[in-house]
């Protein structure tokens, strides 16, 4: 594992990914951070956002829906509320989720429903669509 860091992404349902990579870049609630082999240990609260990782010149993407990242000098463990690898995202499903969220937002404006939850659902759906688009590049 010389000059590589082990990346593990875990959700409540499964171990999504366990792979040695050169660099991990994720979005915390304080902004984006990058981790290389030998990084100083830290913990970060993750925002709903993009995670990317690079190995051998190939960059892969994932949509992360909040959680925590634990960084050591040799490993990054992401404990995510939900996560999907970009290459596995069903774009049609994400677009339907975005449309449902937009409808909920409109209803929230007129019926007093939970606007914040609807906005968060739209944000997650749009993230998934963006990550799926990046996987196609």
From TrEMBL:
The keyword Membrane appears for this protein: yes
Coiled coil ranges: 91-118
Keyword Coiled coil carried by entry: yes
Protein origin, superkingdom: Bacteria
Xref: InterPro entries: ATP_F1_dsu/esu_C_sf (IPR036794), ATP_synth_F1_dsu/esu (IPR001469), ATP_synth_F1_dsu/esu_N (IPR020546), ATP_synth_F1_esu_C (IPR020547), ATPsynth_dsu/esu_N (IPR036771)
Domain ATP synthase epsilon subunit C-terminal: 88-132
A GO term, aspect molecular function: ATP binding
Keywords: ATP synthesis, Cell membrane, CF(1), Coiled coil, Hydrogen ion transport, Hydrolase, Ion transport, Membrane, Transport
Pfam families named in the record: ATP-synt_DE, ATP-synt_DE_N
GO CC terms of this entry: plasma membrane; proton-transporting ATP synthase complex
Record-annotated ATP synthase F1 complex delta/epsilon subunit N-terminal domain positions: 7-83
Membrane topology, record value: Peripheral membrane protein
Subcellular location: Cell membrane
Function: Produces ATP from ADP in the presence of a proton gradient across the membrane.
NCBIfam families in UniProt: ATP_synt_epsi, PRK13446.1
The protein's assembly and partners: F-type ATPases have 2 components, CF(1) - the catalytic core - and CF(0) - the membrane proton channel. CF(1) has five subunits: alpha(3), beta(3), gamma(1), delta(1), epsilon(1). CF(0) has three main subunits: a, b and c.
Family: Belongs to the ATPase epsilon chain family.
Protein name: ATP synthase epsilon chain
Organism: Dethiosulfatarculus sandiegensis
Gene from which the chain derives: atpC
């Amino acid at each position: 594992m010389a000059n590589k860091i082990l990346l593990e992404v875990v959700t409540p349902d499964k171990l999504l990914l366990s792979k040695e990579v050169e660099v991990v870049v994720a979005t915390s609630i304080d902004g984006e951070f990058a981790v290389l082999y030998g990084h100083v240990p830290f913990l970060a609260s993750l925002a709903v956002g993009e995670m990317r990782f690079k190995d051998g010149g190939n960059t892969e993407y994932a949509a992360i829906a909040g959680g925590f990242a634990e960084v050591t000098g040799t490993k990054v463990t992401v404990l995510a509320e939900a996560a999907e690898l970009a290459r596995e995202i069903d774009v049609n499903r994400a677009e339907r989720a975005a449309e449902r969220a937009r409808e909920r937002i409109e209803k929230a404006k007129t019926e007093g429903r939970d606007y914040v939850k609807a906005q968060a659902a739209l944000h997650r759906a749009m993230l998934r669509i963006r990550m799926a688009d990046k996987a196609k590049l």
